[in-house]
Amino acid sequence: MPYESRGFGRGLFVALWSVAALGTAACAGQPDTNASATGAADTAAAAFDPRDFNGIWQGATQDLTANLLPGEEIVLTEYGAQRYRAVDHAKFPGNICLPYGPNRGMAATNPYMVVQTADTIAVLTEHIDYRVFYMNEKTHPEDILEYPEWMGHSIGRWEGDTLVVDTVAIRPESWLDRGGLEHSDKLHLIERFQKTSKDAFTWTVTVEDPVFFAKPFTYRLNVERLDFPRLIPDRCDDNEVDAEHMLPTPGAIHKVPPTMPRS
Questions:
Q1: 3 pairs with which residues across the strands?
Q2: Which of 9, 132, 148, 155 is the most exposed place for a label (fewest CB within 10 A)?
């Protein structure tokens, strides 16, 4: 290519670049609303992962009946009603330094931390308890019911962007809530965790226990992210001496008392 042609090409490129630069400069004082809106939307989308539950969360309730889904009710069996009438709050597991169990542990006033990997999701509580959701297991171990655990055995799966957790083999000493709902070792939980924003999710729990409840029931908690850097261990001392630990405190406490069986 002749030198003059190469020079002409460079000159044309510089001229065009200069025109473009002048146009950009002329518009520099005016915001590009389309670009700003697109950038903000892209940033928000990147920040919100519906499958990311890592972080510290809180969704507390003392009384599951206050969180029942519309149309849901708790109907006790004969045995469940007998235990409900005789419940003693002095024997609440937390009062005697026993683990809270999966329901109460994630509905206490203390926050909890979720640590998530592809294979497992761990829930760590300030009461020094933990749950593990095994994401690669399709079924529970065949002998799991022979070895119940305080937090049970949990397997998880994804249904779209909803985390579904199935839990069995829960020790019967734990309570479902602070109001006095007990359960047996036949308790079966189906939990659904669904992100509603980067900093919030719903926790929907279906409770099945044919020993205590005549039919399943479902409740839901709204859970929010806490801007905490870490958990603060809340260890229970078995020599705590407040009155509730020592004195019988009969009578369950619920906003909507469970339905008793017909006599």
A1: none
A2: 9
